[in-house]
Amino acid sequence: MKEALAEVLTRELELLLRLRDASLKEQEYLRQDNLEGIEEMVVVKEQLIKEITALEEERQRLHRELAAAAGISPEAGLGELLEAGGGSPEMAALGEKMRFVLAELQEINATNSLLIGQSLAYARKILGLLTPYLEERPPVLDKSV
After folding, report:
1. How far is CA 49 from CA 29, 41, 58, 65, 92, in A?
2. Where are the alpha helices (DSSP H) in the chain?
3. pTM of the model
4. Long-range contacts of 109-117 (CB under 8 A, 24+ apart)
């Protein structure tokens, strides 16, 4: 069972790294105002999140089973599981890498949110500037030549 948990952690870390890379690519597209690229990354990220969610459920199930076998609470963290002999040094290293990647993802997502906010503010400003003109324009401007 320890090997199964280590395998799930390894696969989850790989997916988190791919999600981080997709988020960085999305950030690049946000900076370039590349709508097609942004849409592509949203689809990629949604798929990765689905896969990560499924793996996380499996990881939690295995974690609970190992915790029960080690005689500790199912809510115990990975560190406690390791101390009780229910884990391995490999799992500790994987857990640490995952925490690092998750922290990176939080930072990247915060930056992406700021970029999206700036784009929306700019679009609202332009719309605000154009709205009076569009509401007052003569009907002749609505006709094709």
Report:
1. 20, 12, 14, 24, 23
2. 2-32, 35-70, 78-83, 89-136
3. 0.81
4. 109/23, 111/27, 112/23, 112/26, 112/27, 112/30, 115/27, 115/30, 115/31, 116/30
Tell me the pLDDT tens digit for each residue of 31-58.
999 999 999 999 999 999 999 999 999 9
Place of tokens 């952690």: 9
At a CB cut-off of 8 Å and minimum separation 6, what does 98 contact?
A: 9, 12, 13, 16
Burial 7-42 (b: 16+ CB within 10 A, else e): ebbbebbebbbbbbebbbbbbebbeeeeeeebeebe
Q: Name all domains of the chain by residue range, CATH numbers in brackets.
A: 2-138 (1.20.58)
